[in-house]
Amino acid sequence: MRPSPDEPRADSPHATAAALLPLVGGPANVTSVAHCMTRLRLGLADPSLVDEGRLRALPAVLGVVSDDTYQVVLGPGVVGRVTTAFEELLAAGDGTAARLAARGAALKEERRRRNATPLKLALRRVADIFVPLIPALIGCGIIAGVGGLLVNAGLLPGLTPALAAIASGFMALIAVFVGHNTAKEFGGTPVLGGAVAAVVVYPGVAKVTAFGLVLSPGQGGVLGALAAALLGTYVEKWCHRHIPPTLDVLLTPAVTVLLAGLATLYGLMYVAGEISTAIGTAANWLLSTTGVLAGLLLGGLFLPLVMLGLHQALIPIHTTLIEQQGYTVLLPVLAMAGAGQVGAATAVYVRRRHDTSLRTTIRSALPAGLLGVGEPLIYGVSLPLGRPFLTACAGGAAGGAFIGFFAMLGHQVGATAIGPSGWALFPLLAGSQSLLMTSAIYAGGLATGYAVGFAATCAFGLGGLDEETDGTRTERAEAGRADAPAG
User: Fold this and answer.
1) Are strands 70-73 and 39-44 parallel, antiparallel or unpaired?
2) Are residues 41 and 172 in the same domain?
3) Domain range for residue 18?
4) Beta-carbon count within 10 A of 256 CB
């Protein structure tokens, strides 16, 4: 029988959302809904109500992750449409979820306090400060790349200054945005955080001297801005506690900006400047001196770092390098982990010719993997199977070593923004050589990661999978698909 025109297709976002909702405990159990690039993130009043076995068995679900929110991995593109449909289903409900929102928020906070380690909380806060800046970094990075191509080609000389201004404007004021987000994350007034951090990039700081030292605008960069806004937040909270309510609205902003601003000028900018310089020097020395070994370790260990959530500590380092040098030399090396992942998944696809379910999962996840979004392949293929995850790391190590080898020869490969990897990183590439040479080295690293990930998986990563039946493989994958912290 032909389905009704009003009935959603089985693979439509509405059908997927309708299948998900009862499996996560129904509308009454959902207290919040959000999504990132690949995951539907749900706040649940009682996570024990989730029917995880049936949830994982849904065709659209590539994996689940239980952290401070319950996360369903759906893949890029799909997740946004499913989230919209999911929210529509909740809005059409009877309002029970809204009545339980307060209770759910309390349970969520209690669970976070019980399970979160100080390190994870700190890294999550760092990510919450810098991740919202990524779209602007990407947009400005691409515009800067286009402007550089036009300058090198001698084309449109009247337009290139405008492109340079557009691309550089955000980076010139990135400290203000970091300060705003820092204050917001730590419970202060965001605009006061931005005001204190603005001191770091104000041109007039060049007239300030202390202890015989002269400041320069931007000294300390994003690290100085983060420290300044964090200090301003603590000063603001102290003022709220000790200043009488009648004077709070006048004195608290003034005292916050004054005290935090003076501490920034006469201390934080110097310290953060030294740290920022050390980060840039260390990154360049690491790749130019120990490039092969550094690339091997960074490319090989990045996937496990993502699984543990520790990769978030690299975000301010990338941002500092971009602010200092115009690009980060670490991101292209780390991006090789995704290449190893693609190679490993391709090997599984080739060798498991009769496993239609697994091959369907790989076909749907592989395009995202090529563009640098590795979560669908991680949670849908390599991690459930076990060994392919390790051989994917081997491919990442080989690709990283390839790029590190050329860095030792003086051919640095960098990225002008963070976020994209895989093929999506090509428009953002920059380096010490021509764009053609830089792109060729990066492409060579990707090819090496693909090839080694593929070969290692064929040789060592499949184990007895070739002899297993489809049902055995499915059971093994479902049993082995472990929860992991958010990436």
Assistant:
1) antiparallel
2) no
3) 13-116
4) 27
Residue 63, by phi and psi: left (phi above 0), alpha (psi -120 to 50) or beta? left
**111 and 234 share one domain:** no
Quick one: 134 and 226 in the same domain?
yes
Same domain, 140 and 174: yes
Active-site residue, 36 included: yes
Which residue of the set 36, 140, 393, 458 is catalytic? 36
Instruction: Say how far apart CA 478 and CA 487 lie, in whole Å.
Output: 20
Query: Are 424 and 381 spatial neighbours (Cβ–Cβ below 8 Å)?
Result: no
Contact yes or no for 344/374 (Cβ under 8 A): no
Task: Please say if the pLDDT value at position 67 is more than 80.
Answer: no
Return the minimum-mean-pLDDT range out of 211-215, 301-305, 330-334, 453-457.
211-215
Express each pLDDT in 79-115 by its tens digit.
888 988 898 888 776 444 444 444 445 554 555 565 5
Give the CATH number of the domain where residue 89 resides. 3.30.1360.60
Measure Cα distances from 439 to 169, 286, 345, 433 in Å: 26, 21, 24, 10
Q: Locate 483 and state its tokens.
A: 């929860």
Is residue 265 domain-resident?
yes
pTM confidence score: 0.78
The answer to the question of residue 423 being in a domain is no
For the chain, how far is it from start to end, CA to CA, in angstroms? Answer: 43
Dist. CA 71–CA 486, nearest whole Å: 8
Alpha-carbon span 300 to 391, nearest angstrom? 9
Tokens of 88: 């529509």
